[in-house]
């Protein structure tokens, strides 16, 4: 990752996240109490702004399937990857607030992407309604099983490193950038449109390392195709108890991902309530619970206000980490 990011861009990034406190009370809902009382009368479109097969795609399909019965209509998934979820998210938020267009959103889009990309049209938290929160995922640093790097120490001492990410402004990018900058390693990021293609690149030895979610990497780890070196969490993962945290290795890097569902502001109260109730029921579904366990995901089920506060706090935390490590970016 380039280090030519200027102070002007940092200030722009801070300005981009400064709207978060305004949104603490949640998105604006509109319409009369009886507006949309017959909702839904047709299928609901669910945009997943990431490539098929990645962690975001997997959780979206699982919760959508579980929500169809309580909602009373089918939920149609459409993958529209690009810009860490911004492309698909913007399209949905620009649509009519009638409940027929929803999208997956991720914490990194609001807490990390503004540090990396100047976007005057960026999605602002006060311009969206949070339908429901879903999951929290940790990032694990992995290399190809045939890589000569057996430990974090081996990797950071390499003459140079090319590392894959699920896109610009993602947690995988930030966690690796902080690690390599802190270690003084000459490293270059190689962004992909989603976790699945990033993992494929590592399996094909096109890159040297990857910080990816457990959902995207664990099956390859268990199959002996990828080697885990460290996890970017506060404590060791119950799924990889033998893998040290980055903090244990001397690098104070803690980065996770949170996923939630959004809709345009102005949803009629009846529509908003029906969506919230459908996904609340979906989270109780036994098949959904099995999916979470099978894909190494933890529940993140908090209120709208708590979710918005977490985004605000994370933006400040990651900005502080970037300054601590002297990390600079450019778009």
Automatic annotation (TrEMBL):
Ranges that cross the membrane: none
Protein name: ABC transporter substrate-binding protein
Position of the signal peptide: 1-24
Domain of life: Bacteria
Record PANTHER family: BLR1237 PROTEIN (PTHR42928:SF5), TRICARBOXYLATE-BINDING PROTEIN (PTHR42928)
Family, as annotated: Belongs to the UPF0065 (bug) family.
Short name of one Pfam family: TctC
Keywords, in A-Z order: Signal
Coiled-coil region: none
């Amino acid at each position: 990752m380039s280090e030519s990011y200027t102070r002007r861009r940092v200030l722009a990034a801070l300005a981009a996240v400064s709207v978060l406190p305004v949104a603490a009370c949640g998105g604006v809902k509109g319409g009369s109490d009886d507006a949309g009382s017959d909702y839904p009368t047709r299928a609901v479109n669910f945009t997943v702004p990431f490539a098929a097969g990645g962690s975001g795609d997997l959780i979206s399909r699982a919760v959508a399937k579980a929500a169809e019965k309580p909602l009373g209509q089918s939920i149609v998934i459409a993958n529209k990857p690009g810009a860490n979820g911004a492309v698909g998210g913007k399209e949905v938020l620009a649509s009519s607030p009638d409940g027929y267009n929803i999208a997956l959103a991720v914490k990194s889009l609001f807490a990390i992407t503004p540090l990396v990309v100047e976007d005057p049209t960026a999605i602002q938290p006060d311009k969206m309604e949070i339908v429901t929160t879903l999951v929290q995922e940790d990032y694990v640093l992995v290399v190809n099983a045939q890589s000569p790097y057996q430990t974090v120490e081996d990797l950071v001492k390499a003459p140079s490193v090319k590392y894959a990410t699920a896109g610009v402004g993602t947690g995988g990018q930030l966690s690796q950038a902080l690690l390599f900058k802190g270690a003084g390693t000459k490293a270059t990021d190689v962004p992909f449109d989603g976790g699945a293609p990033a993992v494929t690149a590592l399996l094909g030895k096109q890159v040297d390392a990857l910080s990816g979610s457990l959902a995207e990497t664990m099956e390859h780890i268990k199959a002996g195709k990828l080697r885990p070196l460290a996890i970017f969490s506060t404590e060791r993962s119950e799924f990889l108890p033998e893998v040290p945290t980055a903090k244990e290795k001397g690098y104070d890097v803690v980065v996770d991902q949170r996923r939630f569902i959004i809709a345009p502001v102005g949803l009629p109260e009846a529509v908003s309530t029906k969506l919230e109730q459908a996904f609340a029921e979906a989270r109780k579904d036994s098949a959904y619970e099995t999916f979470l366990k099978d894909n190494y995901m933890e529940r993140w089920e908090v209120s709208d206000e708590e979710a918005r506060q977490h985004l605000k706090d994370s933006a400040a935390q990651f900005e502080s980490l970037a300054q601590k490590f002297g990390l600079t970016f450019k778009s």
